[in-house]
């Protein structure tokens, strides 16, 4: 396919911070890849290289953050020549690609949810998308509907289910005054805790617990955007341990 204009749109939700959403490439050096990296959306685009092999056609744009929140996010990519509008959740970013070409030349299949192993160093280090997509539309073609009705030829539909499984985890929201208190476990030598958290606030107390028999306490907090662990033990010489990350 050799196109001057492209319109690609879809919705996705995931709890993974990395994954290829779609990819296409051609023999002339053209490629387009949309992926999640560190829970941000990254669009890599190249409309081809000239005969000198110049690589200045490569263009990379990053938008959004915390997109692994398992909420639906919508993406629209509109391209006319070298002019691109990238819309994420109604936030529009306009940019112009590098290089000197206007057409996107894709000789191979376009893949959604991952990219085929091409032998290039970039292909084996990228994770496949893990999550849900809906309303996939590529240049007027309803890909979701065509895939469900098995009308895509050629196509390789592996391990797809046309439903979206909700995660089993149940989040808890805390405001400035709320907290959750649970009973401790006396006569235990081991103290172990694990949890996931997300916040916009740079400071806050995540966990506090006294040890039994006045042996000390443990505290986990966020201090200026860093997680700190403080362990106070009353019966040893070096009675305080502080870890920050």
Description:
- This protein is mainly β and 245 residues long.
- The protein folds into 2 domains: 2-149, Jelly Rolls, CATH 2.60.120; 169-244, no CATH class.
- The protein has helices spanning 121-124, 143-148; strands at residues 2-3, 5-13, 19-25, 31-37, 40-46, 59-63, 73-80, 83-88, 91-96, 104-105, 111-112, 132-138, 141-142, 204-210, 216-223, 226-233, 240-244.
- The strands form 4 sheets. Strands 9-8-7-2-12-13 form a 6-stranded antiparallel beta sheet.
- A hairpin with a 2-residue loop joins strand 12 (132-138) and strand 13 (141-142).
- The longest helix is centred in the middle third of the chain and has 6 residues, at 143-148.
- The protein is elongated.
- The termini are far apart.
- 16% of the residues are buried.
Beta-strand percent range: 35-45%
- Name given to the CATH architecture of the largest domain: Sandwich
CATH fold call of the largest domain = Jelly Rolls
Rg from alpha-carbon coordinates: 24 Å
Q: How many domain regions?
A: 2
Structural class of the secondary structure composition? mainly beta
InterPro entries: ConA-like_dom_sf (IPR013320), Laminin_G (IPR001791), Neurexin-related_CASP (IPR050372)
Organism: Malurus elegans
Domain Laminin G: 1-164
Protein name: CNTP2 protein
């Amino acid at each position: 396919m050799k196109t001057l204009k492209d319109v690609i749109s879809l919705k996705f939700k995931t709890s993974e911070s990395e994954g290829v959403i779609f990819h296409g490439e051609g023999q002339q050096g053209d490629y387009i890849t949309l992926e999640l990296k560190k829970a941000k959306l990254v669009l890599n685009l190249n409309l081809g290289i000239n005969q000198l092999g110049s690589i200045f056609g490569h263009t990379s744009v990053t938008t959004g953050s915390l997109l692994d929140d398992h909420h639906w996010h919508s993406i629209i990519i509109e391209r006319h020549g070298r002019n691109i509008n990238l819309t994420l959740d109604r936030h529009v970013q306009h940019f112009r690609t590098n290089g000197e070409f206007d057409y996107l030349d894709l000789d191979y299949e376009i893949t959604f949810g991952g990219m085929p192993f091409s032998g290039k160093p970039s292909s084996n280090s990228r994770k496949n998308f893990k999550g849900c997509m809906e309303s996939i539309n590529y240049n007027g073609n309803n890909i979701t509907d065509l895939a469900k009705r098995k009308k895509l030829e050629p196509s390789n539909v592996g391990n797809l289910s046309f439903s979206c499984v909700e995660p089993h985890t149940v989040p808890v929201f805390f405001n400035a005054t709320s907290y959750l208190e649970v009973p401790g476990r006396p006569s235990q030598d081991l103290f172990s805790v694990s949890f996931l958290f997300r916040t916009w606030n740079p400071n806050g107390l995540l966990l506090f617990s006294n040890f039994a028999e006045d042996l000390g306490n443990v505290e986990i907090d966020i201090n200026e955007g860093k997680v700190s662990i403080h362990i106070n033990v009353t019966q040893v010489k070096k009675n305080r341990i502080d870890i920050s990350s």
